[in-house]
Amino acid sequence: MDRIFVAQPRLAGNEKKYVLDCLDSNWISSIGKYITAFEEAFARYCGVRHAIATNNGTTALHLALVALDLRPGDEVIVPTVTYIATANAVRYCGATPVLADVQPGTLNLDPEDIERRITDKTRGIIPVHLYGHPADMAAIDAIARRHGLWVVEDAAEAHGAEVGGRRVGGLGTCATFSFFGNKIITTGEGGMVTTDDDELAARLRLFRGQGMDPARRYWFPVVGYNYRMTNIQAAIGLAQLEMIDEALADRHRLAGWYDQALAGFGERIVLPGQASWARHVYWMYNIFLREGEASRRDEVMRRLDEAGIETRPVFHPMHVMPPYRSDASYPVADVWAQRGINLPTHRDLSRADVDRIAGALASLLS
Ligand SMILES: Cc1ncc(COP(=O)(O)O)c(C=O)c1O
Question: What pTM, to 2 d.p., does this model score?
């Protein structure tokens, strides 16, 4: 039987045509019409004035924090359950990521725990829209305003997700995205920072391009970085963005199939929920073994693998890994992260694939 991968890209639109145009026109580096077109289209999609393309989602995060002038001694609140790049970007600035606990089910930042971790060194908050479900931005925004903090949305996994009908990418001071090959839309490797703030956008562009003064060639007023995206990456990204509505519709259909196929498993697993104010985009469809069953998680994943079904464990919390180990209390993350499994979630899965996955799970969990 064919192997089912946990994620894979679909390049079925104008990707090849636009890439060939880059090659034919000789514009293959980080200047070219596709960069401008992709940035403008992505900014429109997120409902903001500026989008600044980068070479991956990690550099997008680092660039955002540099442009916000994050410094050694500063603290930034990040969820303990996220991909490690969120915390690493804070460290790259010499600042301290202060880990906060997450909410059951979505594993997104718990606003109440943010409040408990704020000190006079706190500069900002990085909510992560984990696995495609947006964080509680209304509550987080209220906390940020009360304490005078900035908010960087880490939207690497949530292109097109919404909070109260408003798309992520325009809900904080700025937002960052990843376009790695397994993401909702891809450029192979790539990233983006979005913002409505003109001054911040200018700083983001300055630091992205080695710090070169836009009005004076080869004059560098600051130490910058080369975090630029290539025209070829942007060509792929533009073609991907043209199809994002179809991509999201396919993911919702897939989630519906999983919901149906796994509906009878309620005693044994918890299915992903969706807050009433949220539009989940299902970058990953997660299931959680019931409490007390955590010890079986790795065995279930191994047996699925033997049956030709690739899965991933939900991210290990930062506070249990060497660079960020902490004895502080994270009761929700401790209980939920070790029970979670990312099931295969991509556009080329069929109803029959979902039935095969559900069937394999049924025999393992019974
Ligand atoms: C939540 C989160 N933040 C940041 C990143 C970093 O993006 P990239 O892999 O493009 O550097 C990822 C990528 O997987 C991610 O999932």
Answer: 0.98
